[in-house]
Amino acid sequence: MELTGSVPAASALAAAHEVIRQPLGQILPRLSATLDGLVPHLAAAELSTHCAHSPFKSYGEGSLAGRITAADLHPLVASVPAGQPWQGTARIGGDEHPVLAVASDATPRGALLVLVRSENVAIGGPDTAVVQAMWDLVTSHFDRLATEAVPGTLAQSRAAAGERARVIAELTETHATALSGLLGVLRGRGLDDAAARAAAVDLAVNALVELRAETERDQAVAEEPAGQAFARLADSLRPLVRYSPVRLELGAPDSARPLAADVAHAARAIVRAVLLTALEQDAVGRIHVGWHLTNGELRATVRDDGPGELSTCTFGPSRVGERLEALGGRLDIDAVPGWGTTVTATIPLGAPDTSPADPLRSLGARELEVLTHLARGHRNRVIAQELHISESTVKFHVANILTKLGVASRGEASALFHSVA
């Protein structure tokens, strides 16, 4: 149902009902279609800061909607008061566009809807009031789903939020590595201007390639072999010393044991941070980086031949300590003046978790959707129709679900799902 000017109350309520009864992923498209008669627009975007599952969404013409980012909406979040629709021009998707921005305080942290309009014509107060009321209703609906989530929805939100945090951390480390490599080139005294420029361009190009590879990498990976995790670390360390006199020695683990993704990522981040600190010392000619796995822990070691003056105070309350504390690990520093420093980060392979065990934690977002249908007694054909995938894909997901949950049948998986409620 599409709303037009002077909307009767009954029509507005019916339209609102049609919007909020949609699946979460279809609410914004339906809301956009519903409001297009009142406010003709090319695209719609929302920033629901309380939503752990998917706080930013956009919908509309592909050439525009695909370019809109959460960063475009942040200035409007800060400047548009709740309950007071704002009309004006804003930079959206790289260009200036007329917009209608509507903020709601129906949740503690607020939510914003932006309609990127097709024409810059003032919209009457009654029509903007309808848009405001509709957005307040949708925001309240989102908030209720977040605070009263059923197990399946809650598990999906947790999985999505955790995965998003992991990806952001990975990309942050990639940026930090690239920038540190560029600084190493610019600070180096062994290259003239032309050589330094060529080296910096080479590093930047390689960093862009790596960034795109990270973006396209399968985000559902929960574990990776220790050797593969160390190889990724080695690839990120080499640019840091490529144009310095320091010789980097690498000691890969002699174990093929798989590491949990959070352990592998934390170990890489910690080693990079320690290496960057070691490189800031004077008279360092060699740095050895190695991983060693025992039955219960991963020991990541960075050993240099510098002045031997590093200490626990050198790192202080840094991200190194925070990462280790989160995983139940520790940092040991053995410094011998005149001989060098050995920094060892020890990470338990079974990190302690004080929160109640979540049996669904290992499942990806799509697997959680399939499990939700299994728990309702749906067969493969019905699940395939509901999720718009093939039956063979459903069978693949079901097999993965049974393996990850450690159960032998669909019935046991369903019982485990219901036990979370």
From TrEMBL:
Domain of life, per lineage: Bacteria
Record carries keyword Hydrolase: no
Residues annotated as domain HTH luxR-type: 356-421
One Pfam short name: GerE
UniProt name for this protein: LuxR C-terminal-related transcriptional regulator
Keywords: DNA-binding, Transcription, Transcription regulation
Species, as recorded: Streptomyces maoxianensis
Keyword match Transcription: yes
